[in-house]
UniProtKB/TrEMBL annotation:
Primary role: Component of the exocyst complex.
Keywords: Exocytosis, Protein transport, Transport
Bias (Basic and acidic residues) ranges: 115-124
InterPro entries: Cullin_repeat-like_dom_sf, Exo70, Exo70_C
Spans annotated as Disordered: 95-131
GO cellular component: exocyst
Name of the protein this chain belongs to: Exocyst subunit Exo70 family protein
Amino acid sequence: MEPPGNDVVAFESAEKIILRWDSTASEDAREKMIFAGDRYEIDRYLQAVDEIQRSMEFATLSDDQNKANSAIQIAMARLEDEFRNILIAHTTPMEAESLTDSSPLPEEDYEDDSPLTKDLEHQESNSSCSYRPTNSIREIDLMPSDAIYDLRCIAERMILAGYLRECIQVYGSVRKSAVDSSFRKLGIEKLSIGDIQRLEWEILETKIRRWIRAAKVCVRILFASEKKLCEQIFEGLGTATDDACFMETIKGPAIQLFNFAEAISISRRSPEKLFKILDLHDALSDLLVDIEIVFDSKSSESIRVQAVEILSRLAEAARGILSEFENAVLREPSKVPVPGGTIHPLTRYVMNYISLISDYKQTMSELIVSKPSTGSRYSSDPNTPDMDFAELESQTPLALHLIWIAVILQFNLEGKSKCYRDTSLAHIFMMNNVHYIVQKIKGSPELREMVGDDCLRKLTGKFRQAATNYQRSTWVNVLHCLRDEGLHVKGSFSSGVSKSALRERFKTFNAMFEEVHRTQSTWLIPDTQLREELRISVSEKLIPAYRSFLGRFRSHIESGRHPENYIKYSGEDIETAVLDFFEGYQVSQHIRRRSE
Protein backbone atom coordinates (compact mmCIF):
# COMPACT_ATOMS: atom_id res chain seq x y z
CA MET A 1 0.00 0.00 0.00
CA GLU A 2 1.24 3.45 -0.89
CA PRO A 3 2.13 5.77 1.99
CA PRO A 4 -0.74 8.02 3.13
CA GLY A 5 1.13 11.05 1.91
CA ASN A 6 1.16 9.78 -1.62
CA ASP A 7 -2.62 9.18 -1.43
CA VAL A 8 -3.20 12.74 -0.35
CA VAL A 9 -1.04 14.11 -3.15
CA ALA A 10 -2.80 11.89 -5.70
CA PHE A 11 -6.24 12.91 -4.42
CA GLU A 12 -5.41 16.62 -4.45
CA SER A 13 -4.01 16.37 -7.97
CA ALA A 14 -7.12 14.54 -9.16
CA GLU A 15 -9.41 16.97 -7.35
CA LYS A 16 -7.67 19.89 -9.04
CA ILE A 17 -8.36 18.40 -12.48
CA ILE A 18 -12.01 17.75 -11.58
CA LEU A 19 -12.53 21.28 -10.29
CA ARG A 20 -10.86 22.80 -13.32
CA TRP A 21 -13.61 21.29 -15.46
CA ASP A 22 -16.44 22.26 -13.12
CA SER A 23 -18.82 24.05 -15.46
CA THR A 24 -20.62 25.73 -12.57
CA ALA A 25 -17.49 27.56 -11.53
CA SER A 26 -15.59 28.23 -14.74
CA GLU A 27 -16.58 30.04 -17.93
CA ASP A 28 -13.88 28.20 -19.81
CA ALA A 29 -15.20 24.85 -18.57
CA ARG A 30 -18.71 25.76 -19.72
CA GLU A 31 -17.58 26.58 -23.23
CA LYS A 32 -15.33 23.58 -23.84
CA MET A 33 -15.97 19.84 -23.85
CA ILE A 34 -13.28 17.52 -22.57
CA PHE A 35 -14.03 14.75 -25.06
CA ALA A 36 -13.90 17.19 -27.93
CA GLY A 37 -10.22 17.81 -27.13
CA ASP A 38 -7.10 15.70 -27.41
CA ARG A 39 -6.76 12.20 -26.02
CA TYR A 40 -4.25 13.20 -23.38
CA GLU A 41 -6.70 15.58 -21.69
CA ILE A 42 -9.48 12.94 -21.88
CA ASP A 43 -7.31 10.30 -20.28
CA ARG A 44 -6.14 12.71 -17.56
CA TYR A 45 -9.73 13.47 -16.61
CA LEU A 46 -10.76 9.80 -16.57
CA GLN A 47 -7.74 8.95 -14.43
CA ALA A 48 -8.67 11.75 -12.07
CA VAL A 49 -12.17 10.33 -11.71
CA ASP A 50 -10.71 6.88 -11.07
CA GLU A 51 -8.46 8.33 -8.39
CA ILE A 52 -11.35 10.09 -6.66
CA GLN A 53 -13.38 6.88 -6.70
CA ARG A 54 -10.40 4.91 -5.36
CA SER A 55 -9.80 7.40 -2.56
CA MET A 56 -13.44 7.14 -1.50
CA GLU A 57 -12.89 3.48 -0.66
CA PHE A 58 -10.08 4.30 1.74
CA ALA A 59 -11.26 7.62 3.17
CA THR A 60 -11.73 7.27 6.95
CA LEU A 61 -12.18 10.83 8.13
CA SER A 62 -15.50 12.56 7.50
CA ASP A 63 -13.75 15.58 5.99
CA ASP A 64 -11.97 13.37 3.48
CA GLN A 65 -15.24 11.61 2.64
CA ASN A 66 -17.03 14.93 2.16
CA LYS A 67 -14.31 16.24 -0.13
CA ALA A 68 -14.36 13.01 -2.15
CA ASN A 69 -18.16 13.05 -2.40
CA SER A 70 -18.14 16.64 -3.54
CA ALA A 71 -15.49 15.94 -6.15
CA ILE A 72 -17.29 12.85 -7.44
CA GLN A 73 -20.60 14.76 -7.75
CA ILE A 74 -18.87 17.46 -9.78
CA ALA A 75 -17.19 14.78 -11.91
CA MET A 76 -20.44 12.90 -12.50
CA ALA A 77 -22.27 16.07 -13.53
CA ARG A 78 -19.46 16.78 -15.94
CA LEU A 79 -19.38 13.24 -17.31
CA GLU A 80 -23.17 13.32 -17.76
CA ASP A 81 -22.80 16.45 -19.89
CA GLU A 82 -19.95 14.87 -21.86
CA PHE A 83 -21.98 11.67 -22.31
CA ARG A 84 -24.95 13.63 -23.66
CA ASN A 85 -22.76 15.74 -25.92
CA ILE A 86 -21.07 12.70 -27.50
CA LEU A 87 -24.45 11.02 -28.08
CA ILE A 88 -25.92 14.15 -29.68
CA ALA A 89 -22.85 14.78 -31.81
CA HIS A 90 -23.00 11.29 -33.29
CA THR A 91 -26.76 11.05 -33.77
CA THR A 92 -27.00 13.30 -36.83
CA PRO A 93 -25.37 10.91 -39.34
CA MET A 94 -28.08 8.32 -38.61
CA GLU A 95 -30.79 10.73 -39.72
CA ALA A 96 -28.92 12.05 -42.75
CA GLU A 97 -27.65 8.81 -44.21
CA SER A 98 -30.02 6.09 -43.15
CA LEU A 99 -33.56 7.38 -43.44
CA THR A 100 -35.87 8.20 -46.28
CA ASP A 101 -37.08 11.63 -47.26
CA SER A 102 -39.92 12.71 -44.99
CA SER A 103 -42.28 13.91 -47.72
CA PRO A 104 -45.22 11.51 -48.11
CA LEU A 105 -45.72 9.70 -51.39
CA PRO A 106 -48.82 8.09 -52.91
CA GLU A 107 -48.91 4.40 -52.21
CA GLU A 108 -48.38 3.42 -55.83
CA ASP A 109 -45.34 5.68 -56.08
CA TYR A 110 -43.96 5.08 -52.60
CA GLU A 111 -40.32 4.25 -52.97
CA ASP A 112 -38.02 4.36 -50.00
CA ASP A 113 -34.52 5.07 -51.27
CA SER A 114 -32.95 5.45 -47.84
CA PRO A 115 -29.85 3.44 -46.95
CA LEU A 116 -31.90 1.79 -44.21
CA THR A 117 -34.41 0.44 -46.70
CA LYS A 118 -31.73 -0.37 -49.25
CA ASP A 119 -29.96 -2.35 -46.56
CA LEU A 120 -33.19 -4.22 -45.95
CA GLU A 121 -33.68 -4.99 -49.63
CA HIS A 122 -30.05 -6.00 -49.99
CA GLN A 123 -30.09 -8.40 -47.08
CA GLU A 124 -33.33 -9.98 -48.33
CA SER A 125 -31.47 -10.99 -51.48
CA ASN A 126 -28.13 -11.70 -49.82
CA SER A 127 -28.39 -13.37 -46.44
CA SER A 128 -24.62 -13.45 -45.96
CA CYS A 129 -24.77 -9.77 -44.97
CA SER A 130 -26.53 -10.58 -41.71
CA TYR A 131 -24.72 -10.16 -38.42
CA ARG A 132 -27.16 -12.44 -36.61
CA PRO A 133 -28.01 -16.13 -37.07
CA THR A 134 -31.06 -15.11 -39.13
CA ASN A 135 -31.60 -14.18 -42.74
CA SER A 136 -33.44 -10.97 -42.03
CA ILE A 137 -31.85 -8.87 -39.27
CA ARG A 138 -29.19 -6.47 -40.45
CA GLU A 139 -27.48 -4.35 -37.84
CA ILE A 140 -25.70 -1.20 -38.93
CA ASP A 141 -23.13 0.81 -36.99
CA LEU A 142 -24.86 3.87 -35.57
CA MET A 143 -21.70 5.45 -34.20
CA PRO A 144 -17.96 5.33 -34.91
CA SER A 145 -15.87 3.08 -32.69
CA ASP A 146 -13.98 5.93 -31.00
CA ALA A 147 -17.24 7.53 -29.87
CA ILE A 148 -18.47 4.17 -28.58
CA TYR A 149 -15.20 3.75 -26.66
CA ASP A 150 -15.60 7.19 -25.04
CA LEU A 151 -19.23 6.53 -24.13
CA ARG A 152 -18.33 3.20 -22.60
CA CYS A 153 -15.52 4.83 -20.55
CA ILE A 154 -17.94 7.40 -19.19
CA ALA A 155 -20.74 4.86 -18.57
CA GLU A 156 -18.41 2.57 -16.69
CA ARG A 157 -17.44 5.35 -14.25
CA MET A 158 -20.97 6.70 -13.83
CA ILE A 159 -22.31 3.23 -13.05
CA LEU A 160 -19.44 2.53 -10.62
CA ALA A 161 -20.23 5.79 -8.82
CA GLY A 162 -23.92 4.86 -8.48
CA TYR A 163 -25.19 7.05 -11.30
CA LEU A 164 -26.71 4.23 -13.36
CA ARG A 165 -30.20 5.79 -13.47
CA GLU A 166 -28.82 9.15 -14.65
CA CYS A 167 -26.75 7.42 -17.31
CA ILE A 168 -29.72 5.43 -18.60
CA GLN A 169 -31.95 8.49 -18.64
CA VAL A 170 -29.49 10.58 -20.63
CA TYR A 171 -28.86 7.75 -23.07
CA GLY A 172 -32.57 6.97 -23.50
CA SER A 173 -33.52 10.62 -23.95
CA VAL A 174 -31.04 11.25 -26.77
CA ARG A 175 -31.44 7.95 -28.59
CA LYS A 176 -35.22 7.96 -28.31
CA SER A 177 -35.22 11.36 -29.96
CA ALA A 178 -33.18 9.85 -32.77
CA VAL A 179 -35.60 6.94 -33.11
CA ASP A 180 -38.55 9.34 -33.13
CA SER A 181 -36.89 11.24 -35.96
CA SER A 182 -36.43 7.98 -37.85
CA PHE A 183 -40.10 7.18 -37.32
CA ARG A 184 -41.13 10.49 -38.82
CA LYS A 185 -38.94 9.91 -41.84
CA LEU A 186 -40.47 6.44 -42.28
CA GLY A 187 -43.98 7.88 -42.11
CA ILE A 188 -44.89 6.38 -38.72
CA GLU A 189 -47.24 8.83 -37.06
CA LYS A 190 -48.06 9.28 -33.39
CA LEU A 191 -51.67 8.15 -33.47
CA SER A 192 -53.66 6.60 -30.67
CA ILE A 193 -55.69 3.45 -31.27
CA GLY A 194 -58.80 5.63 -31.24
CA ASP A 195 -57.29 8.02 -33.79
CA ILE A 196 -56.50 5.13 -36.11
CA GLN A 197 -59.95 3.60 -35.85
CA ARG A 198 -61.60 6.91 -36.74
CA LEU A 199 -59.73 7.21 -40.05
CA GLU A 200 -61.47 6.41 -43.34
CA TRP A 201 -60.55 2.97 -44.66
CA GLU A 202 -59.14 4.37 -47.93
CA ILE A 203 -56.67 6.41 -45.87
CA LEU A 204 -55.86 3.43 -43.68
CA GLU A 205 -55.09 1.26 -46.71
CA THR A 206 -52.30 3.64 -47.66
CA LYS A 207 -51.04 3.75 -44.09
CA ILE A 208 -51.06 -0.04 -43.84
CA ARG A 209 -48.91 -0.37 -46.94
CA ARG A 210 -46.47 2.17 -45.53
CA TRP A 211 -46.56 0.57 -42.07
CA ILE A 212 -45.64 -2.86 -43.43
CA ARG A 213 -42.58 -1.46 -45.16
CA ALA A 214 -41.63 0.70 -42.19
CA ALA A 215 -42.13 -2.11 -39.65
CA LYS A 216 -39.58 -4.27 -41.48
CA VAL A 217 -37.06 -1.45 -41.38
CA CYS A 218 -37.79 -0.71 -37.72
CA VAL A 219 -37.51 -4.25 -36.39
CA ARG A 220 -34.80 -5.65 -38.62
CA ILE A 221 -32.56 -2.61 -38.87
CA LEU A 222 -33.49 0.31 -36.62
CA PHE A 223 -34.33 -1.56 -33.41
CA ALA A 224 -31.67 -4.21 -34.03
CA SER A 225 -29.03 -1.53 -34.57
CA GLU A 226 -30.10 0.35 -31.43
CA LYS A 227 -29.77 -2.88 -29.49
CA LYS A 228 -26.32 -3.45 -30.92
CA LEU A 229 -25.27 0.06 -29.89
CA CYS A 230 -26.51 -0.53 -26.34
CA GLU A 231 -24.51 -3.73 -26.18
CA GLN A 232 -21.38 -2.02 -27.50
CA ILE A 233 -21.60 0.68 -24.84
CA PHE A 234 -23.09 -1.07 -21.81
CA GLU A 235 -22.59 -4.83 -22.07
CA GLY A 236 -20.88 -6.13 -18.93
CA LEU A 237 -21.35 -2.88 -17.01
CA GLY A 238 -23.69 -3.97 -14.26
CA THR A 239 -26.63 -6.35 -14.44
CA ALA A 240 -28.48 -6.12 -17.79
CA THR A 241 -27.57 -2.46 -18.14
CA ASP A 242 -27.45 -2.73 -21.91
CA ASP A 243 -31.00 -4.12 -21.93
CA ALA A 244 -32.22 -1.39 -19.58
CA CYS A 245 -30.85 1.30 -21.89
CA PHE A 246 -32.30 -0.45 -24.94
CA MET A 247 -35.77 -0.55 -23.41
CA GLU A 248 -35.47 3.05 -22.21
CA THR A 249 -34.85 3.98 -25.86
CA ILE A 250 -37.13 1.61 -27.72
CA LYS A 251 -40.11 0.68 -25.58
CA GLY A 252 -42.16 3.80 -26.38
CA PRO A 253 -41.47 3.72 -30.13
CA ALA A 254 -42.05 -0.05 -30.28
CA ILE A 255 -45.44 0.32 -28.58
CA GLN A 256 -46.25 3.19 -30.95
CA LEU A 257 -45.32 0.98 -33.92
CA PHE A 258 -47.35 -2.04 -32.87
CA ASN A 259 -50.33 0.01 -31.68
CA PHE A 260 -51.12 0.67 -35.32
CA ALA A 261 -51.43 -3.04 -36.12
CA GLU A 262 -53.36 -3.57 -32.90
CA ALA A 263 -55.85 -0.85 -33.83
CA ILE A 264 -56.47 -2.52 -37.19
CA SER A 265 -56.88 -5.93 -35.55
CA ILE A 266 -59.68 -4.73 -33.26
CA SER A 267 -61.38 -2.34 -35.69
CA ARG A 268 -64.89 -2.85 -37.04
CA ARG A 269 -64.94 -5.75 -39.47
CA SER A 270 -66.02 -5.41 -43.08
CA PRO A 271 -65.25 -7.42 -46.24
CA GLU A 272 -63.03 -4.78 -47.86
CA LYS A 273 -60.63 -4.93 -44.92
CA LEU A 274 -59.80 -8.64 -45.26
CA PHE A 275 -56.88 -8.42 -47.64
CA LYS A 276 -55.06 -5.60 -45.86
CA ILE A 277 -55.57 -7.50 -42.61
CA LEU A 278 -54.00 -10.54 -44.28
CA ASP A 279 -51.13 -8.35 -45.51
CA LEU A 280 -50.62 -7.14 -41.94
CA HIS A 281 -50.84 -10.69 -40.62
CA ASP A 282 -48.26 -11.95 -43.13
CA ALA A 283 -45.91 -9.06 -42.43
CA LEU A 284 -46.13 -9.47 -38.67
CA SER A 285 -45.84 -13.24 -38.94
CA ASP A 286 -42.66 -12.83 -41.00
CA LEU A 287 -41.32 -10.41 -38.41
CA LEU A 288 -42.16 -12.54 -35.39
CA VAL A 289 -38.85 -14.45 -35.34
CA ASP A 290 -36.95 -11.18 -35.67
CA ILE A 291 -39.01 -9.61 -32.89
CA GLU A 292 -38.16 -12.53 -30.62
CA ILE A 293 -34.46 -12.07 -31.39
CA VAL A 294 -34.38 -8.30 -30.98
CA PHE A 295 -36.64 -8.31 -27.90
CA ASP A 296 -35.22 -11.44 -26.28
CA SER A 297 -34.85 -10.22 -22.69
CA LYS A 298 -37.21 -10.52 -19.75
CA SER A 299 -37.78 -6.75 -19.63
CA SER A 300 -38.88 -6.70 -23.28
CA GLU A 301 -41.27 -9.62 -22.90
CA SER A 302 -44.27 -7.26 -23.12
CA ILE A 303 -43.24 -6.32 -26.68
CA ARG A 304 -43.05 -9.97 -27.72
CA VAL A 305 -46.39 -10.73 -26.08
CA GLN A 306 -48.03 -7.73 -27.75
CA ALA A 307 -46.83 -8.88 -31.19
CA VAL A 308 -48.11 -12.43 -30.65
CA GLU A 309 -51.47 -11.17 -29.39
CA ILE A 310 -51.87 -8.81 -32.35
CA LEU A 311 -51.09 -11.68 -34.72
CA SER A 312 -53.75 -13.78 -33.02
CA ARG A 313 -56.32 -10.97 -33.23
CA LEU A 314 -55.54 -10.37 -36.90
CA ALA A 315 -56.12 -14.08 -37.55
CA GLU A 316 -59.41 -13.97 -35.66
CA ALA A 317 -60.44 -10.82 -37.55
CA ALA A 318 -59.76 -12.56 -40.88
CA ARG A 319 -61.86 -15.58 -39.86
CA GLY A 320 -64.65 -13.32 -38.62
CA ILE A 321 -64.67 -11.25 -41.81
CA LEU A 322 -64.92 -14.38 -43.97
CA SER A 323 -67.86 -15.63 -41.92
CA GLU A 324 -69.57 -12.25 -42.08
CA PHE A 325 -68.91 -12.07 -45.82
CA GLU A 326 -70.62 -15.42 -46.33
CA ASN A 327 -73.66 -14.23 -44.43
CA ALA A 328 -73.72 -10.96 -46.38
CA VAL A 329 -73.65 -12.83 -49.71
CA LEU A 330 -76.48 -15.08 -48.59
CA ARG A 331 -78.62 -12.19 -47.31
CA GLU A 332 -77.78 -9.52 -49.93
CA PRO A 333 -81.24 -8.02 -50.36
CA SER A 334 -81.32 -6.16 -53.68
CA LYS A 335 -84.36 -7.15 -55.75
CA VAL A 336 -84.12 -4.74 -58.67
CA PRO A 337 -83.46 -6.83 -61.81
CA VAL A 338 -80.32 -5.90 -63.71
CA PRO A 339 -81.25 -4.73 -67.24
CA GLY A 340 -80.98 -7.32 -69.98
CA GLY A 341 -80.26 -10.20 -67.63
CA THR A 342 -76.55 -9.41 -67.60
CA ILE A 343 -74.06 -10.23 -64.84
CA HIS A 344 -75.24 -8.93 -61.48
CA PRO A 345 -72.81 -6.61 -59.61
CA LEU A 346 -73.00 -9.02 -56.66
CA THR A 347 -71.67 -11.83 -58.85
CA ARG A 348 -68.72 -9.78 -60.03
CA TYR A 349 -67.96 -8.58 -56.51
CA VAL A 350 -68.18 -12.01 -54.89
CA MET A 351 -66.15 -13.82 -57.54
CA ASN A 352 -63.45 -11.15 -57.62
CA TYR A 353 -63.39 -11.36 -53.83
CA ILE A 354 -62.90 -15.12 -53.63
CA SER A 355 -60.34 -14.92 -56.44
CA LEU A 356 -58.37 -12.57 -54.20
CA ILE A 357 -58.83 -14.98 -51.30
CA SER A 358 -57.27 -17.72 -53.43
CA ASP A 359 -54.26 -15.43 -53.96
CA TYR A 360 -53.80 -15.63 -50.18
CA LYS A 361 -54.20 -19.40 -50.23
CA GLN A 362 -51.27 -20.20 -47.96
CA THR A 363 -52.19 -17.70 -45.25
CA MET A 364 -55.91 -18.37 -45.40
CA SER A 365 -55.36 -22.13 -45.29
CA GLU A 366 -53.42 -21.68 -42.06
CA LEU A 367 -56.13 -19.48 -40.55
CA ILE A 368 -59.26 -21.32 -41.72
CA VAL A 369 -59.29 -24.67 -39.93
CA SER A 370 -63.02 -25.45 -39.70
CA LYS A 371 -65.70 -25.89 -42.34
CA PRO A 372 -68.48 -23.31 -42.84
CA SER A 373 -70.93 -23.03 -39.98
CA THR A 374 -73.91 -23.27 -42.33
CA GLY A 375 -74.98 -26.00 -44.70
CA SER A 376 -77.02 -29.17 -44.61
CA ARG A 377 -78.07 -28.74 -41.00
CA TYR A 378 -80.11 -25.76 -42.21
CA SER A 379 -81.79 -27.74 -44.98
CA SER A 380 -85.25 -27.05 -43.50
CA ASP A 381 -84.64 -23.30 -43.76
CA PRO A 382 -86.01 -22.04 -47.09
CA ASN A 383 -83.69 -19.03 -46.85
CA THR A 384 -80.53 -21.14 -46.79
CA PRO A 385 -79.34 -23.59 -49.45
CA ASP A 386 -78.64 -27.21 -48.68
CA MET A 387 -75.07 -28.44 -48.96
CA ASP A 388 -73.82 -31.87 -48.01
CA PHE A 389 -70.25 -31.47 -46.80
CA ALA A 390 -69.92 -35.24 -46.48
CA GLU A 391 -69.47 -35.38 -50.26
CA LEU A 392 -66.49 -33.04 -49.95
CA GLU A 393 -64.51 -34.72 -47.19
CA SER A 394 -61.29 -34.55 -49.17
CA GLN A 395 -61.46 -30.76 -49.47
CA THR A 396 -59.60 -28.40 -47.14
CA PRO A 397 -61.61 -26.15 -44.82
CA LEU A 398 -60.71 -23.13 -46.94
CA ALA A 399 -61.87 -24.90 -50.12
CA LEU A 400 -65.16 -25.75 -48.40
CA HIS A 401 -65.68 -22.10 -47.55
CA LEU A 402 -65.04 -21.04 -51.15
CA ILE A 403 -67.39 -23.71 -52.50
CA TRP A 404 -69.99 -22.67 -49.93
CA ILE A 405 -69.71 -19.04 -51.08
CA ALA A 406 -70.32 -20.15 -54.68
CA VAL A 407 -73.35 -22.16 -53.52
CA ILE A 408 -74.92 -19.31 -51.54
CA LEU A 409 -74.19 -16.87 -54.36
CA GLN A 410 -76.16 -19.10 -56.76
CA PHE A 411 -78.92 -19.40 -54.19
CA ASN A 412 -79.15 -15.62 -53.88
CA LEU A 413 -79.09 -15.22 -57.68
CA GLU A 414 -81.92 -17.71 -58.06
CA GLY A 415 -83.97 -15.52 -55.77
CA LYS A 416 -83.11 -12.45 -57.81
CA SER A 417 -84.02 -14.25 -61.06
CA LYS A 418 -87.60 -14.54 -59.83
CA CYS A 419 -87.86 -10.76 -60.05
CA TYR A 420 -87.94 -10.98 -63.86
CA ARG A 421 -91.43 -11.11 -65.30
CA ASP A 422 -90.12 -12.82 -68.43
CA THR A 423 -89.18 -16.40 -67.62
CA SER A 424 -86.80 -16.56 -70.59
CA LEU A 425 -84.92 -13.52 -69.33
CA ALA A 426 -84.66 -15.13 -65.89
CA HIS A 427 -82.94 -18.11 -67.52
CA ILE A 428 -80.59 -15.80 -69.44
CA PHE A 429 -79.77 -14.06 -66.15
CA MET A 430 -78.89 -17.35 -64.44
CA MET A 431 -76.93 -18.56 -67.45
CA ASN A 432 -74.88 -15.36 -67.58
CA ASN A 433 -74.12 -15.33 -63.89
CA VAL A 434 -73.29 -19.00 -63.39
CA HIS A 435 -71.15 -18.90 -66.55
CA TYR A 436 -69.28 -15.93 -65.05
CA ILE A 437 -68.72 -17.93 -61.85
CA VAL A 438 -67.30 -20.81 -63.90
CA GLN A 439 -65.02 -18.55 -65.93
CA LYS A 440 -63.63 -16.84 -62.82
CA ILE A 441 -62.85 -20.21 -61.27
CA LYS A 442 -61.18 -21.44 -64.45
CA GLY A 443 -59.22 -18.20 -64.73
CA SER A 444 -57.53 -18.67 -61.34
CA PRO A 445 -55.33 -21.80 -61.06
CA GLU A 446 -55.37 -21.54 -57.25
CA LEU A 447 -59.15 -21.15 -57.09
CA ARG A 448 -59.71 -23.95 -59.60
CA GLU A 449 -57.48 -26.28 -57.63
CA MET A 450 -59.33 -25.59 -54.39
CA VAL A 451 -62.85 -25.74 -55.83
CA GLY A 452 -62.07 -28.93 -57.72
CA ASP A 453 -63.17 -30.34 -61.08
CA ASP A 454 -66.26 -32.04 -59.67
CA CYS A 455 -67.72 -28.77 -58.41
CA LEU A 456 -66.72 -27.06 -61.65
CA ARG A 457 -68.56 -29.71 -63.67
CA LYS A 458 -71.71 -29.18 -61.62
CA LEU A 459 -71.53 -25.42 -62.14
CA THR A 460 -70.98 -25.88 -65.88
CA GLY A 461 -74.01 -28.17 -65.99
CA LYS A 462 -76.10 -25.50 -64.27
CA PHE A 463 -75.40 -22.72 -66.74
CA ARG A 464 -75.90 -25.10 -69.67
CA GLN A 465 -79.21 -26.16 -68.15
CA ALA A 466 -80.18 -22.50 -67.86
CA ALA A 467 -79.39 -22.08 -71.58
CA THR A 468 -81.57 -25.10 -72.37
CA ASN A 469 -84.39 -23.74 -70.23
CA TYR A 470 -84.17 -20.43 -72.07
CA GLN A 471 -84.50 -22.13 -75.44
CA ARG A 472 -87.48 -24.11 -74.30
CA SER A 473 -89.30 -21.16 -72.79
CA THR A 474 -88.66 -18.90 -75.80
CA TRP A 475 -88.64 -21.11 -78.87
CA VAL A 476 -91.02 -23.99 -78.23
CA ASN A 477 -94.03 -21.77 -78.99
CA VAL A 478 -92.32 -20.12 -81.93
CA LEU A 479 -91.38 -23.47 -83.44
CA HIS A 480 -94.88 -24.70 -82.73
CA CYS A 481 -96.02 -22.29 -85.47
CA LEU A 482 -93.92 -24.20 -87.99
CA ARG A 483 -95.62 -27.56 -87.51
CA ASP A 484 -97.86 -29.16 -90.13
CA GLU A 485 -100.59 -30.13 -87.72
CA GLY A 486 -103.79 -28.14 -88.17
CA LEU A 487 -103.03 -26.94 -91.68
CA HIS A 488 -104.58 -29.78 -93.72
CA VAL A 489 -108.23 -30.03 -94.68
CA LYS A 490 -109.72 -33.39 -93.88
CA GLY A 491 -110.10 -35.74 -96.78
CA SER A 492 -107.28 -34.80 -99.15
CA PHE A 493 -103.91 -34.95 -97.44
CA SER A 494 -101.78 -34.16 -100.44
CA SER A 495 -103.50 -31.03 -101.62
CA GLY A 496 -105.97 -30.10 -98.94
CA VAL A 497 -104.13 -27.23 -97.23
CA SER A 498 -106.23 -24.63 -95.48
CA LYS A 499 -104.95 -21.36 -96.86
CA SER A 500 -106.65 -19.37 -94.13
CA ALA A 501 -105.03 -21.52 -91.44
CA LEU A 502 -101.69 -21.26 -93.24
CA ARG A 503 -101.93 -17.49 -93.53
CA GLU A 504 -102.77 -17.30 -89.85
CA ARG A 505 -99.81 -19.53 -89.05
CA PHE A 506 -97.39 -17.27 -90.96
CA LYS A 507 -98.88 -14.16 -89.33
CA THR A 508 -98.51 -15.75 -85.88
CA PHE A 509 -94.92 -16.77 -86.57
CA ASN A 510 -94.03 -13.31 -87.86
CA ALA A 511 -95.59 -11.58 -84.86
CA MET A 512 -93.95 -13.93 -82.34
CA PHE A 513 -90.54 -13.76 -83.98
CA GLU A 514 -90.67 -9.99 -84.31
CA GLU A 515 -91.55 -9.70 -80.62
CA VAL A 516 -88.70 -12.02 -79.64
CA HIS A 517 -86.36 -10.04 -81.88
CA ARG A 518 -87.50 -6.71 -80.47
CA THR A 519 -87.19 -7.89 -76.89
CA GLN A 520 -84.16 -10.15 -76.91
CA SER A 521 -81.94 -7.81 -78.90
CA THR A 522 -81.99 -5.66 -75.74
CA TRP A 523 -80.90 -8.58 -73.59
CA LEU A 524 -77.19 -8.91 -73.01
CA ILE A 525 -74.83 -11.86 -72.94
CA PRO A 526 -71.50 -10.10 -72.28
CA ASP A 527 -69.31 -13.13 -72.95
CA THR A 528 -68.68 -13.21 -76.70
CA GLN A 529 -68.21 -16.95 -76.95
CA LEU A 530 -71.28 -17.76 -74.86
CA ARG A 531 -73.37 -15.30 -76.90
CA GLU A 532 -72.24 -16.86 -80.16
CA GLU A 533 -72.84 -20.40 -78.89
CA LEU A 534 -76.40 -19.59 -77.88
CA ARG A 535 -77.13 -17.88 -81.20
CA ILE A 536 -75.81 -20.90 -83.05
CA SER A 537 -77.91 -23.20 -80.93
CA VAL A 538 -81.04 -21.11 -81.65
CA SER A 539 -80.21 -20.92 -85.35
CA GLU A 540 -79.66 -24.67 -85.61
CA LYS A 541 -83.21 -25.26 -84.42
CA LEU A 542 -85.00 -22.27 -85.92
CA ILE A 543 -83.51 -21.75 -89.39
CA PRO A 544 -83.89 -25.32 -90.73
CA ALA A 545 -87.44 -25.51 -89.32
CA TYR A 546 -88.39 -22.17 -90.93
CA ARG A 547 -86.81 -22.99 -94.27
CA SER A 548 -88.49 -26.38 -94.32
CA PHE A 549 -91.86 -24.87 -93.49
CA LEU A 550 -91.36 -22.15 -96.10
CA GLY A 551 -90.36 -24.72 -98.69
CA ARG A 552 -93.45 -26.82 -98.08
CA PHE A 553 -96.02 -24.06 -98.03
CA ARG A 554 -94.62 -21.05 -99.95
CA SER A 555 -96.52 -21.93 -103.12
CA HIS A 556 -99.85 -21.94 -101.30
CA ILE A 557 -99.31 -18.40 -100.10
CA GLU A 558 -97.79 -17.02 -103.27
CA SER A 559 -100.70 -18.28 -105.33
CA GLY A 560 -103.02 -16.07 -103.30
CA ARG A 561 -103.44 -12.33 -102.83
CA HIS A 562 -100.77 -10.17 -101.14
CA PRO A 563 -98.30 -12.95 -100.28
CA GLU A 564 -95.84 -10.38 -98.94
CA ASN A 565 -98.14 -9.82 -95.98
CA TYR A 566 -97.57 -13.40 -94.86
CA ILE A 567 -94.18 -14.45 -96.14
CA LYS A 568 -92.29 -11.43 -94.84
CA TYR A 569 -88.87 -13.03 -94.31
CA SER A 570 -86.54 -15.36 -96.10
CA GLY A 571 -84.43 -17.90 -94.28
CA GLU A 572 -81.50 -15.51 -94.67
CA ASP A 573 -83.53 -12.69 -93.08
CA ILE A 574 -84.24 -14.84 -90.04
CA GLU A 575 -80.60 -15.89 -89.86
CA THR A 576 -79.49 -12.24 -89.95
CA ALA A 577 -82.06 -11.25 -87.34
CA VAL A 578 -80.74 -13.85 -84.89
CA LEU A 579 -77.41 -12.00 -84.97
CA ASP A 580 -79.11 -9.07 -83.26
CA PHE A 581 -79.97 -11.16 -80.20
CA PHE A 582 -78.25 -10.55 -76.85
CA GLU A 583 -76.35 -7.43 -77.95
CA GLY A 584 -77.87 -5.34 -75.19
CA TYR A 585 -79.25 -2.46 -77.23
CA GLN A 586 -82.47 -1.55 -78.98
CA VAL A 587 -82.43 -2.40 -82.68
CA SER A 588 -84.84 -1.19 -85.32
CA GLN A 589 -88.46 -2.12 -84.75
CA HIS A 590 -88.36 -3.93 -88.09
CA ILE A 591 -86.27 -6.93 -89.01
CA ARG A 592 -83.88 -6.18 -91.81
CA ARG A 593 -84.84 -7.91 -95.04
CA ARG A 594 -82.31 -8.76 -97.67
CA SER A 595 -84.86 -8.05 -100.36
CA GLU A 596 -85.17 -4.42 -99.23
